[in-house]
Amino acid sequence: MKKLALVLFTLFITLAIPELVIRLIWENNDWWVTQPTPPSPEFPVNQYGFRDYEYSMKKPENTVRIICLGDSFTWGDGVEFDDTYPKRLERALNLRQGRETKKKYEVLNISWRGHSTTQEAAELDQVLLFQPDMIVLGYCLNDSEDWSNPQAIRSLRQRYLFPREPGSALRTLYRRWSLLSFLANRLSNLRISRGTISYYQHIYDEDYPGWQKARAALRIFSREKTPILVVIFPLLSYDLNHYPFHRIHKKVHLELKKLSLDYLDTLNILHAENHIRLEAVPYRNPHPSEIAHHLIAKSLYQTLIEQFGRILL
Which of 75, 121, 276, 289 has the most CB atoms in a 10 Å sphere around its CB? Predict the structure, then answer.
C-alpha cells in the first residue's frame, strides 16, 4: 500500500510541477482555432483603386516611371504605406538619381491582395496604360496555387496548413489541462511545419495545373517589350538559414532563365536576418515587415542601377 501511495505521489509531482510551469509561462488558449490576422495599416486608395498616391495615367514629361506589380507582399500587408518597398524605392531614386539626371522618378504600387502571377498577367494591358518604362513583378511561392478550383485549394490547405480541431471531449480536456494542451499544440505545429513543405512541393509538381498556369503567365510577361524584373520573395515564417524551399526557388529560377526574364531573389539578401524580425507580426502575419521592405528596396535599387541603368537615365 505504501509503495502504491509512493508511486501515486511521484506521479502527481511529475505531472503537477510541469503543469504549474506551463500555466505560468504559456497561455492555454484554443490553439486549434485560426486567429485573425491583425489589421494592416490602411492608406486611402487612389482613383484607380491602388494603395498609392494619385498619378495621372499619362506619364509626365521628364519622368521615369516604374510599376511594381504584385500581391499583398507588394501592397504592404502589415506595414505603413510609406514603408513599402515601392515607396522606399521611389524616394531613393529621387534623392540619388534625381540629383544627377534632373528627372523625376515615379514608382507606382499596382498590387492586389490575394492575386497571383496568372491574375497579374491578365491585368497587364491595364497596367501598360500607365506607360511604364519598366515593370517590377513580385513573385511569391503561393503564386502557383490554382484558384480556378478554389474547393481543391481549400481542401489542400486544410489538409496541410491548418490545425485539426479536436472533438468536444478533447477540447474540454485541453482547456483544463495545460500540459496536455501544450504538448498537443507542439505536435500540431510540427505537423503543420512538415505539411507546409509537402503543400508547396505539391503545387510545384510538373503536372499541377497551378504551376502550369503560372509558367504560362510568365511567358506572357516574357513577350512584353517593356523591361521586366521579377522579384522573388521567400516564405518568411521559416528560418532562412535552414530554409526548406531552395529547390522550389531553383525551379522558379530555371523557368525565368528559359524565358530570358531577369530576376532578383530576395532570399539571398534576407537570409542573414532573424526571420522573426522580417515578419510584419511575428507568428501572426508572415508578410514582410518594414525591415524586410527596407532591405528589399535597397537591393532592388542596387539591381536597377547595375542592370537597368540605361532606363533610369
Answer: 75
